[in-house]
Amino acid sequence: MLQFPGSCDERDALNACRLAGGEARLIWHGDDDLGGVDAVVVPGGFSYGDYLRAGSIARFSPAMEAVARFAADGGPVIGICNGFQVLCESGLLPGALLPNDSTRFTCHQGELVVGEADSPWTSALEPGHVLSVPVKHQSGRFFAPPDLLEEIVSGGQVAFRYSPGSNPNGSLDDIAGIVNREGNVLGLMPHPEHAVDALTGSEDGLAIFRGVIGAGVG
């Protein structure tokens, strides 16, 4: 679990990993050694205060250099909200996250439709399954040039879409989350780590963390 100055969701993600049956610990942004972890979570929040552009400074941290090496070796990586922005800025995922069409911060319970992506993170989910997961961001509009978008869609890299009619930010093709070509790196804007207890609205997010553990890591 990475931790940057400005991260605010890493403790919730730690809790989600543990509830899913895994072990988890924090890795400070200045560390260049991941210490033999089996999977990496890049959490939500406002890394480095989101100065310049969301995720644009975090990409240069020693920890992200280590994550890039880990991902290149096939290690499972998930970036949630700001973490998704960091992964795109780092080149570990294609496309970019732009300000919402409304230019406003959005915060509500949303519905996600599982896509066709083949990933350890989605291994416990069937395509078409609907998850209830909180959405909270101001720069979550997924964008890619037409040729790249076609490559992402046709290549089966779409992991999650917002349910029909519920796109909160203007993301192209209603995309809420994607994977890299190899499937080991997942980025999504909604927050599965906040959907781990029915008392707070949903425990659907646990399926994502259980998926990677069930796939043999964590």
Tell me about this structure.
The relative contact order is 0.19. The chain is built from 5 helices and 11 strands. The longest helix has 11 residues, at about 60-70. It has about 220 residues and is an alpha/beta fold. The strands form 3 sheets. A 7-stranded mixed sheet has the order 3-4-11-10-9-6-7. It has one domain (about 1-215): Rossmann fold (3-Layer(aba) Sandwich). The radius of gyration is 15 Å and the shape is globular.
Radius of gyration: 15 Å
Specify the helix fraction band. 10-25%
Shape: globular
Residue stretches low in confidence (pLDDT < 50, at least 5 long) are: none
The end-to-end span amounts to: 11 Å
Looking across the biggest beta sheet, what order are the strands in? 3-4-11-10-9-6-7
Overall pLDDT metric: 95
The CATH class designation is Alpha Beta
Number of domains: 1
The CATH topology annotation reads as Rossmann fold
- Percent strand equals 15-25%
Main beta sheet strand tally, sense and closure: 7 strands, mixed
H/E topology pattern: EHEEHEHEEEEHEEEH
In the CATH hierarchy, the architecture is: 3-Layer(aba) Sandwich
The tally of helices reads 5
CATH superfamily: Class I glutamine amidotransferase (GATase) domain
Number of strands: 11
Quick rundown:
By secondary structure, the chain is an alpha/beta fold. It contains five helices and eleven strands; from the N terminus they run βαββαβαββββαβββα.
